[in-house]
What we know:
The structure holds two protein chains of two kinds. Chain A is an alpha+beta fold. Helix content of chain A is 14%, strand content 35%. In chain A, the strands form two sheets. A four-stranded antiparallel sheet of chain A has the order 1-2-8-7, with no helix packed on it. A three-stranded antiparallel sheet of chain A has the order 3-4-6, with no helix packed on it. By secondary structure, chain B is mainly beta. In chain B, the strands form two sheets. Chain B has a four-stranded mixed sheet with strand order 1-7-5-4, with no helix packed on it. In chain B, strands 2-3-9-8 form a four-stranded antiparallel sheet, with no helix packed on it.
Amino acid sequence: MLTRWTDFDRTFAALDLLRRRMEDSVFGRDFDGAVESWGGRDVAVNVFDHGGAFVVRAEVPGFADKDITVNLNQGVLTLAGERKVALPDGATAHRRERPSVKFSRAFALPKDIDAEHVTAELKLGVLTVTLPKKPESQPRQITVKVG
Amino acid sequence: MSTNPTNAETRQPATARRQAAVPAVDILETRDEFTLRADLPGVAPDGLNVRVHGDELSIEGQRHEPEAGTVVERGYEALDFARTFRLPPGIDGSRIEARLEAGVLTLRLPKAESSKPRKIEVRAAS
């Protein structure tokens, strides 16, 4: 039995040599422990300025609504969450690259955010927070009239 | 590039079109099956392609995340995902089940009856 499991580890290896080398360098050779990969350090966040609003996106696969809190207080936006990845009873792990994650990220916001209309959406494992700017601070299109 | 790939494009490996990221996976084994879980944030069910060809299992996830506006902070590239595995012998390929939930793919790979551990009853000679 033991030999078979060892064989499995070998045969379940990714096919592409280049990819395998990359995995070796990223994950180390020991696949038994929880290895660091996505989110091992923190969740990845992108922030875009859409002109009329800032959009903050965070990669949070495996997080449910209840696992995430979005807070806006005194001009500071805080995203926090936790996912637990547990090994079911009686299961043998051949690869564990998906760590349990606990994160908290804080962003100091510019003064012109319309705090009343901030929205947060969790979809497909991506958290999107939209922070509209107050109307007076939005860029305005000035129409040039042809005389 | 079109953001609405045709069926023909969907069948092409994601890596052939643009750079793809290798998703993190857990692979677990119980008596009856293997379970593979992969983090695929941003991938919708219709952008997911799981294929078994011989003993190769490939997972591809297309990601269409709006990236309009000016970048204030860049923590990740919204790349497609692609990864290929070689399956161990004894998996019943016709009974593989896939589920995508909250950006996590769960694949159940049942073992064929013949490859499950069996307990042999020892009968006492009477």
